[in-house]
Every structure is written in C-alpha cells, then in structure tokens.
Design brief:
The protein is mostly helical and 295 residues long. The chain contains 16 helices and 2 strands.
C-alpha cells in the first residue's frame, strides 16, 4: 500500500488521472481512488477515536464528502492529498465526542490510576506463549488509551506527526499553519505524552513496575481485552512502521523516536468493507449518480 504522507510513494499525477476518470463516469476509477486513501484515513481515525465503529463511520463520512466535492477540487491551489486530508482532519476535529472519548477527558492521572488498579498476575512462560496475542492486544489498548488523554488537536498532531510519520511541511500545509507551528504543536504533544509514559510505563522505563503480561488477565476481566474479538490484532495486514518513510533501525537514535517507535509497531488494520459501503452510498444517491454519471 502506498503511503500518501510519504513523498516517495505519493503521486499527484496518479490521483489527478483517477479524478478525471471519476468525473468522466468511471466506477472503477472511483473505487481505486477510494482504496488508495481509505486505509490511511481509517487507521488515523481508529487511533484518533479509539473505536472501530466510530472510525468506520468517520471514514465513510469523510470519503463521501470528498467524492461529492471532487468537481470543486482545484489542483492549482493544493495537491489532492493536501485537499483530502484537510477535509479529513477538519471532520475529525469537529466530530461530536462519543462516550469512549469523553471517558478519557479526565486526563493521564485518572487513566494511569485506572490501569494501575487492574489486577496484577504473573504469567508462567507457557501462559505468555499461549497468550501472545492477548498480551499484544493489552499493550496496544493501553497505549491507545494514552493517546486519547491528549486533547484533540494534540492527539491528531501526534498521530500523523510521529505515528504515521508525516513530512512536517505537508503537516503544516494540511493544518494551514507554519512548519514551525506544526513542530511546536508536535513537541508539546510529545512532552505531555512522554512525561507520563516515562513516569508510569514499563515499556520505556524499566524502573516502572507496570508490565503488559502482568496486566493482561486483569484487562480481560475488565473487558479491555476480548480474546474472542481482538480489536487491534484481527484483520491487520502489516505494522505501521513498515509503511513509514523511516525504518525502525533509523528511529532508535533519539529519545523521542524511541517512544514513537512503540506506537509505530502497532497494527495497520484492513478495512475493506468501507470501500463497499461508500460506493453503495454513492450509487444509491441520485445526486451523486447525476454528478458522476457512473458506469
């Protein structure tokens, strides 16, 4: 899968050709355009909303909005990816807060107090091997919760800036701010997140007692992890770092990048049903059909 945030992968000309074909009525071009971007939109949404159904809904809403306005896109003003992700991020930032998001507004102290209140149970080596995916699920679920403790602007900046490794100039262009302002936002988000992680998380500071294997059974009891329906480690195609412009090896030379690498190891999930839903919505809408004259 091509990374739209990666200058080496992204092709404006490919998108422009697909857009023209869409406007000429090609359903296949529309399908390809959606598939080229929906994976990243969905995975950013999943990190941002921390809820699969909410991420799917947001992805569908964004792409329908984008497709409905394809005829208004002006390539002389911005690259397509810039235009698309401006719409995407504006939609995310202004979406109504769901109950799961409201639960994290109490902040890091409340989050870590809740986590530390979960039952601790040492696993045998045999149990650790048997519960490999449950332990991974517990780790990702906990780290996803940490990101949710950031405010919306910080959260989105951190997700695209460090987790999905966006070029800072592109990030600034999408948010319509200066590159320096984008970097300042990212620095503040890192500071808030990493200070808490350093003081409480055993993944980054071995002096902290919290360990994912010890917490896993407690997370299962509380319903944070469901072994029968893994939220993060089902239907995923790769890891985020494999789609990044920077490899893991190149990331391990600075403190901030060591932290970011933990988040980059998280799954990049498939979401094939979203494309079908979007196309069904378009094909069932007379206004869209008339606009695109799809065939």
């Amino acid at each position: 899968m091509k990374n739209p945030f990666n200058n080496k992968d992204y092709s404006q000309q490919d998108d422009l050709a697909l857009i023209q074909s869409c406007l000429n009525g090609s359903k296949q071009a529309l399908n390809t355009l959606v598939e080229n971007h929906q994976g990243y939109i969905f995975n950013v949404a999943l990190k941002y909303f921390n809820h699969i159904a909410d991420a799917e809904d947001a992805t569908q809403e964004v792409l329908i909005k984008v497709i409905a306005n394809l005829g208004n896109y002006d390539a002389s003003k911005a690259q397509f990816r810039t235009w698309l992700y401006r719409i995407t991020f504006h939609h995310f930032l202004n979406a109504k807060k769901a109950p799961i998001e409201l639960r994290y507004e109490a902040g890091f102290e409340n989050f870590f107090t809740t986590i530390e209140g979960s039952k601790i149970e040492e696993l045998t080596l045999e149990e650790e091997n048997k519960m490999k995916w449950e332990i991974e699920e517990a780790k990702v679920a906990c780290m996803a919760g940490m990101i949710m403790c950031l405010d919306r602007a910080q959260r989105l900046t951190y997700i695209i800036g460090d987790v999905f490794d966006i070029d800072h100039h592109l990030g600034a262009e999408i948010f319509e701010i200066s590159t320096d302002n984008f970097r300042q936002r990212l620095t503040r988000a890192r500071k808030d997140l990493y200070e808490w992680m350093h003081n409480r998380c055993g993944l980054v500071n071995r002096d902290n007692p919290c360990r994912c294997p010890k917490k896993t059974k407690g997370f299962i009891e509380k319903g944070y992890v469901n072994p029968e329906n893994l939220k993060w480690h089902s239907d995923f195609s790769t890891r985020i770092y494999e789609l990044s412009e920077n490899t893991v090896d190149n990331l391990l030379n600075e403190r901030d990048k060591i932290y970011a690498n933990l988040f980059k190891q998280h799954p990049f999930k498939n979401n094939n049903i979203t494309t079908e839903k979007i196309l069904d919505e378009i094909l069932s809408n007379d206004k869209f059909r008339q606009s695109f004259d799809l065939n």
